[in-house]
Amino acid sequence: MKNSMYLTSIALSVMLSACSTTSSNDDNASLVDEVSPTKVAEEQDPKQVSASNELKSQPEPVSSGTSSTNDQTAFLTDSQSKDTNQEAAALTYQKKEAERNQQIERLKRQLAQNSEQITELTQRLDEKEQQLSSLMTQENDSDWLQRIETLKAERDQLEVSYNQLRLENDQLTKKIEVLEVEKQQALAANASQQQDFIELNKSFRTLDSAHYALSKNYRDLSIEHAHLKSKYKTLSDQKSTLQAQYDSLNKENLKLGGALSEARAQHQVLWDKIRVQGNVINALEEQNAKLERGGSLLVSEPASRTDEDSLKDSAALRSEITRLKAEINAQNGLISDYQNDVVALERELSTKETDLANKLSELNAKYQQAKTLNSELKADLEVLRTAIANQDIKIQQLRQQLADSTALKEQYREEMATLREGHVAAQAEVEQLSAEVRAVNEDKANLERQVNNLIPFEGAVMSLQQQLRSELDDVRWDLPTMANLNDAFEIQLSARVENPVQGQTYYAELFVDSALNMMSASEAEATVDNGAINFRWRLSGLNERPNAMMNVSVTQSLNYDGQTILRKVYRDHATVELVSDDWLSKYGYWLIAILAGLLVGFGVGKIGRKSD
């Protein structure tokens, strides 16, 4: 049995070490698998290569990969520490096994001492039985009951020791039963824990695969996030460039609008000047015409003076008109040139406005497209951030579950080692206790045989004890206070028996002085009836006496093993007054004596007189 238990423990330890080695290999394989998908992705898709390069340039994914590698390395370290813990558990098991062996040896010594005490107790019981047997064959004397009481006390002590040993044997039997139950429970717990360990290992492998899949998914999402981030940055730069172009065009448009407004204001001023000068020319022409018409009508003036003045006025008017015409022609030329410039500017402004409107519409379209794309990218980025956050939460949960499962696995291993140790120790202790119980059962059988042999003796002793517990109580005399001489009278003695034994016999012997005469036997016999006894005697008075003494002695008849033992249980005395109604017999002797004395005195006197 011990060899099979050792083989079982060795097989379990080999299985546990194989499981730990398999888990370590799985962890190493997961590390290799985590490195290899990046290479495969680089060989398959150049875009993913560039995205992964961008991912490497960013600090966050690199730290994530580093933390994952550190976690795997920490897990391998935990596996090695678990193997070390298994070795420590084996050393602890050996230490506990040595302590249990010492406890078993101590129990063996205690059982050997109990066996010696049981043997000694048996011998002493035999000796006491022989002493009691020899005592029963001896004659009854005053020390006989005392020796019986002494032997009874010694026998009680031996019985107490026997009961203690029997109780201790019962406790050992119960302990064996408890150990057997614990053995069965340990076996059941060991089987259930092995099943739980297999399921836990399976769950651990499933969690490891899920962790690898999540790590791969997280890495792919990180690459996609880096690619989208770079694309978003490019679009942001394009948006900034277009916004700067739009701002510059808007400023140029504002400048051109201001210049066009100034040109239109100048054009309006020139038109106003031209209209004023035209009005002046028209007024001068009308004045000239009036003057020409007025010159033909002037006749009262002298001719010489009128011609000279008119010639001077006309020359002044002509020169003024010529100057004004030349100025008008110059201004008309300037106005036409200015009009041409204004038309050219308006044409250029309209062309630029059209180009600017087209560019602005294009920029607005690009801006709206970029804005829409930016919104979509923001939504995708939020979705990706939410997915990454969820993945991080799941990864943390899985890591926590992995840590919990690792701790639970370690706990199960410790419990399995403890139960295995307890199972081996319990098996050894059960075998040892079984042998001890067989020896104790043999001793118990011997003691039971001896006790069965002592049962009649015990019954006789118990009967004797019950008889010895009987005592007299409430003893009453029933006798006359005064009795006549030569008259018979009856004396009655009644008592109540405490702890009565039905049918037990009591003897009472009455002792009287010389003034009383026993008409019945001095010894009376009475049987216990309803817890009471009653004795009767018949007496008569011989001599007159005021206090005639009577002594009574009550003896209990004890039945022990077919033999009768008498035990005095009560002594008492009483008095009775004896009187006589026969005066002759009462005082006749005195009268005769007195008369005789007188006669003797008379005779002596006569004799003396005669001699005188």
TrEMBL record:
Signal sequence segment: 1-25
Give the top-rank taxon of the lineage listed in the UniProt record for this protein: Bacteria
What does the organism's lineage look like at the top?
Bacteria, Pseudomonadati, Pseudomonadota, Gammaproteobacteria, Oceanospirillales
What is the name attached to this protein's record?
Chromosome partition protein Smc
> Which residue windows does the record flag with biased composition (Polar residues)?
47-79
Query: Coiled-coil intervals in this record?
Result: 321-450
Segments for region (Disordered): 21-88
Gene3D superfamilies with a match to the protein in the record? 1.10.287.1490
Tell me which species this is from.
Marinomonas piezotolerans
Keywords assigned by UniProt, alphabetized:
Coiled coil, Membrane, Signal, Transmembrane, Transmembrane helix
TM region positions: 587-605
